Amino acid sequence: MSKSVFIKTYGCQMNVYDSQRIGDVLAADGYTAVDGPDGADLVVLNTCHIREKAAEKVYSEVGRLKALKDARRAEGRTMIIAIAGCVGQAEGPEMMRRAPAIDLVLGPQTYHRLPALLARVEAAHAEGKPGRVLDTDFPADDKFDHLPGEATAPGPSAFLTVQEGCDKFCTFCVVPYTRGAEMSRPVAAVLAEAGRLAGLGAREITLLGQNVNAYHGARADGGSADLGELIHRVAEIDGIERIRYTTSHPRDMTASLIAAHRDVPQLMPYLHLPVQAGSDRILKAMNRSHSADDYRRIVDDLRAARPDIALSGDFIVGFPGETEADFEATLALVRDVTYAQAYSFKYSPRPGTPASVLADQVDEAEKSRRLAALQTLLDSQQQAFNDATVGRRFDVLIERPGRRPGQILGRSPYNQAVHVTLDDQTMSSYHALIGTVFPVTIEAGGPNSLSGRIAAPQWTAA
Ligand code: SAM
Ligand code: SF4
User: Fold this and answer.
1) What is the pLDDT of residues 368-385, one digit of tens each?
2) What is the overall mean pLDDT for the chain?
3) 220 C-alpha vs ligand 2 centroid, how far in Å?
4) Strand, helix or coil at 307?
5) Which residues of 19-51 are buried (b: 16+ CB within 10 A; e: fewer)?
6) pTM for the full model?
7) Taking CB atoms and a 6 Å cutoff, what residues make up the pocket around ligand 1?
8) Is the pLDDT of residue 461 over 60?
């Protein structure tokens, strides 16, 4: 009898990709995906450890699941609760202690073993034992070599992990500890997966990695390809109309990658390039290995290669020892660069990281004040960027029906969400538009999205 699984994803796009692959592994093991935990035989929480609140959310969710699990047990049925991802990797034994309802904890590098791990849990349950299993190895064999093919269509926009792990050890960050050492998938494996995704209907591929631009994948001729070369190769695949990549580190923004922004028409004019801070003293304490001016120069080179490129970034305020003058330097960098979109966070001390034990931690209220000031500036830049697109006509990849009747949702080349209003006649056959790149005239810009109309009045469904 088919078993059901509900997978809930926290955190970054790499976790979204991992959850899809966990779904593929479980589909091959006879599981059917369901939309909620109610009635599920297995619940997988694919967790994120990057900031404190992320882990706390997982513990609250386990609390809610425990009630469902107890109710099922009263009916003589079981529900397995599995914790995957970075909280599992970092805090596996602690999670087992703190939340007895958890049956299984695994890390980001062992999810290809899920069927065997679940069999161990089930065998123990069948004998009336608790059967709790922890697997947070960094196995020598590569999980990608053991994953089955994609079980479901990815939709018009698909993620593809090409690089994992990090050797940079920024002093605030847990990723090198939870995701392990940096590795790149071979070029042939990436191209094969991109080809399969295109065959399943993907029109846009986002190449993923914790440090995606550190990519150095083995080529068949024994050499190695950098990300610029990989992008050229992915662009040759039939059906791939758009390419993006994330997340990049400024240090690995090579000339070849910057040139790809000029030379590959499928590479979208948008780049997420975290800088974290604008003060050289703080950048040094963060072990970022670049200065604020190095970052400004990279932005200049990118804009020379692709003048309309839209930039996004990550910022941390209140890193230990950050003074008002350091924070002002971050604001100055933001004013110089001008972002189309950005993520900003209060520094969160992560156990085991060097910055967490520094003496001069910044007061929580001060962190909140700086975050609010930074976000006010970033929001105004985002609104200005969105406003500047009003009246323009550009290609939008249509992804799915919108939330409001008469609307469909897509993405601009600059990664803005675009709500496209259709007339009644077009709406009746809107599904023919999903997965196509269509010209849209932008009529309004909101803080987080645009709205517009199809710029081809004669359009009819084929
Ligand atoms: N590898 C990418 C890079 O180097 O920029 C980003 C990785 S991390 C998953 C995403 C973002 O989370 C970081 O860019 C940083 O802004 C934020 N972050 C990481 N650790 C943090 C911490 N301890 N406190 C607050 N924000 C943090
Ligand atoms: Fe974390 Fe720094 Fe590595 Fe990015 S580069 S994943 S912030 S350690």
Assistant:
1) 999 999 999 999 999 999
2) 93
3) 29
4) coil
5) bbbbbbbbbebebeebeebeebbbbbbbbbbbb
6) 0.93
7) 12, 50-51, 172-173, 175, 210-211, 247, 249, 274, 276, 314, 316, 345, 347-348, 350
8) no
